[in-house]
């Protein structure tokens, strides 16, 4: 029964994050920007690459091979969708940093990718016996905080949507819940801390984004109200 619950939660996690990624690609193309913070995207891509190509055999050698196999399959899907996320970064990313030459932006992002890959490799070997489970929870905490930072920097909902925020929250929360059904696998305070931190930061992001969207809707209505007299006056003069 526990394995069945964990399998269902793994499926919800995969679906939630896949929806978040697809919506991020679509929103990025619409708004002509990237929708995943650059550092968070670099960590995600490097983690998924290591997980699928170098850690999958060790990961599936545990007692819940069906659940672990499903997690590897989900990682493959995420890597495929990552191609669309990378396109939005290379296509629109330099526009977010107009004070940098394009080549400097591209070089900087490649450096961030390299640092993320090396950091995940070192942390997984040092603290996770070569697996990447503990690092994934730490990355989720960082990503949740980085989404809040991106909202604060842009000061608008550009490149963001409530769909992305909710899908991300559902995906992260479900994988956190899956661990609570078998805490003996990864005992200690790290995963409980990451779970609480992710939930709090994701709820804060949803609330902050909701406030920004509400402000933008109200500003749009006010702008529309102010434009009506001018439109009437212009029509009268015609």
Name the helix and strand elements from N-terminus to C-terminus, one letter apiece: HHHHHHHH
How many strands? Answer: 0
Shape category: globular
**Which stretches are poorly predicted, pLDDT < 50 over at least 5 residues?**
226-238
| Average pLDDT | 84
- Beta content: under 5%
Q: What count of helical segments does DSSP give?
A: 8
Oligomeric form of this entry? single chain
What is this structure, in a nutshell?
The protein has 238 residues and is mostly helical. 81% of the residues lie in helices and 0% in strands.
Structure commentary:
By secondary structure, the chain is mainly alpha-helical. Helix content is 81%, strand content 0%. Helix 1 runs parallel beside helix 4, helix 1 packs antiparallel against helix 7 and helix 2 runs antiparallel to helix 4. The longest helix has 48 residues. It is globular, with a radius of gyration of 21 Å.
């Amino acid at each position: 029964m526990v394995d069945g619950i964990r399998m269902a939660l793994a499926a919800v996690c995969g679906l939630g994050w896949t929806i978040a990624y697809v919506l991020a690609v679509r929103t990025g193309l619409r708004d002509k920007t990237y929708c995943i913070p650059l550092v968070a995207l670099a960590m995600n891509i490097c983690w998924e690459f290591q997980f699928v190509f170098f850690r999958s055999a060790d990961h599936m050698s545990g007692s819940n091979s069906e659940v672990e196999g499903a997690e590897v399959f989900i990682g493959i899907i995420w890597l495929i969708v990552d191609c669309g996320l990378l396109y939005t970064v290379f296509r629109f990313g330099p526009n977010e940093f107009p004070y940098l030459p394009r080549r400097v932006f591209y070089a900087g992002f490649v450096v961030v990718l390299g640092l993320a890959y090396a950091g995940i490799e070192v942390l997984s070997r040092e603290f996770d016996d070569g697996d990447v489970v503990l690092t994934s929870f730490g990355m989720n905490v960082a990503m949740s905080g980085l989404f809040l930072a991106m909202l604060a920097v842009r000061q608008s909902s550009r490149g963001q949507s409530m769909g992305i925020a909710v899908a991300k929250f559902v995906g992260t929360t479900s994988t956190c819940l899956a661990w609570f059904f078998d805490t003996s696998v990864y005992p200690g305070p790290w995963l409980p801390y990451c779970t609480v931190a992710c939930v709090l930061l994701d709820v804060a992001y949803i609330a902050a984004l909701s406030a920004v969207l509400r402000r933008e809707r109200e500003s749009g209505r006010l702008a529309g109200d102010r434009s009506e007299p001018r439109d009437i006056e212009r029509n009268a003069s015609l």
